[in-house]
Design brief:
This protein is mostly helical. The chain folds into two domains: 72 residues, Recoverin, domain 1; 68 residues, Recoverin, domain 1 (Orthogonal Bundle), CATH 1.10.238.10. The protein is 63% helix and 6% strand. A two-stranded antiparallel ribbon has the order 1-2. The two termini are 40 Å apart. Keywords: Calcium, Metal-binding, Repeat. Pfam families: EF-hand_7. InterPro entries: CALM/Myosin/TropC-like (IPR050230), EF-hand-dom_pair (IPR011992), EF_Hand_1_Ca_BS (IPR018247), EF_hand_dom (IPR002048). This is Calmodulin-like protein 5. GO terms for molecular function: calcium ion binding.
Amino acid sequence: MAAGAAPISSEQMNEFREAFAFFDKAGDGCITAEELSTVILSLGQTPTPEELRDMVRDVDADGNGTLELAEFLALMSRKADADADASDPEEELREAFRVFDKDHDGHISKAELGHVMISLGEKLTDEEVEEMIQEADLDGDGLVNFDEFVRMMMLSDSDQQQH
């Protein structure tokens, strides 16, 4: 269990068991990977398809492509731990950085920044994107690494608190 993560309550465990039983259509103690998505959505979680594949791969101990109750409970315990850890500011910044770093190379490029800003409803000119990169880019490589991103976000937070 991650440091600082709260153990899963018996109420949560019962909720997980009920969800599993509901989606175990054949009553054979297994749910398919496809059904897992529906289960997780019904519990208020919204994983991406990649996250879903990773979840199944991580807990499908016997590699049969289905999840037995024990595997499902292990998955949901990890998910609950991850959600508890999400209150960690550094982890929140890492998640935000991953949203911007589309190709997962450890840097945010001008194209990646522009794409995310458009998806957030902010249509910026190339010059505005360039300016944002230059403000954050301390080492002058034309990219924003995680440390530069953290510094930029911290400055942004302190600017907002002063206004």
